[in-house]
Design goal:
- Helix content is 60%, strand content 7%.
- By secondary structure, it is mainly α.
- It comes from marine metagenome.
- Pfam families: PSD2 (PF07624).
- This is DUF1585 domain-containing protein.
């Protein structure tokens, strides 16, 4: 399947999509981490969460961008550890 991104980049199938994601791995991981962290926190990511996101991505890079390093980084982040608990 052919497609085009809003920035004009054209993709022709899964191989092109995969290559584009590999070429922009750091940006992909920043976005993925922010979205997963938002889900884990149950709220939007705020400006004060950005240092945690950058730290998580940096640590993940050192570990080959493993998914487990991202998840561990999120659950060890200050935002996750200090999140408000809801009554059951």
């Amino acid at each position: 399947e052919r497609g085009a991104w809003p920035n004009g980049l054209e993709l022709d199938g899964f191989a092109d999509l995969r290559q584009m994601l590999l070429d922009q791995r750091e940006q992909f991981m920043k976005n993925f981490t922010a979205k997963l962290m938002s889900y884990a926190l149950g709220r939007r990511i705020e400006y004060y969460d950005q240092p945690s996101v950058r730290r998580i991505v940096s640590n993940a890079e050192a570990e080959g961008y493993s998914w487990s390093s991202v998840v561990i980084g999120i659950v060890e982040s200050p935002g996750f550890l200090m999140r408000a608990r809801t009554a059951e």
